[in-house]
Amino acid sequence: MQDSNLSQPELLKSVLEPLLEDFQYWFARARNLLETERINFMSTEQQSDLLLRVKQAQEEVISAKMLFTATEGQVGIDMEALMPWHQLVTECWNVATRFRQERRA
């Protein structure tokens, strides 16, 4: 449970920093899958497009994390920026799940 006496920057850091790390982790996993495997249920163009979007999101997360670190946690990230990353991670999870299921079959 979070300490209710945390200052706003401390609270922001305790929430945002791990979230950005999670995005970095999941985008790295998705990128690895898309770069090393042929996803048969996707066209080559769909796979390339998803990989391109993952790479772009990785750059955006890196930039956001650098800004957050440079300002010592004084700057947050708007939900409108986070939502597309969350949606992309969900899309990547769905692709990875289906890929694993089809490999087992």
What labels would you give this structure?
0% strand; 3 helices
Notes on the structure:
The protein is an all-alpha fold. The chain has 3 helices and no strands. Helix content is 78%, strand content 0%. It has helices spanning 8-36, 44-70, 79-104.
Contiguous helical run count? 3
Helix/strand-derived class?
mainly alpha
Morphology call = elongated
List SSEs in N-to-C order: HHH
Radius of gyration: 16 Å
Number of strands: 0
Counted up, domains total 1
Low-confidence stretches: none
Q: Largest sheet, if any?
A: none
Assembly state here?
Answer: single chain
Mean pLDDT level: 91
Helix content: over 70%
Distance between the termini: 42 Å
What percent strand? under 5%
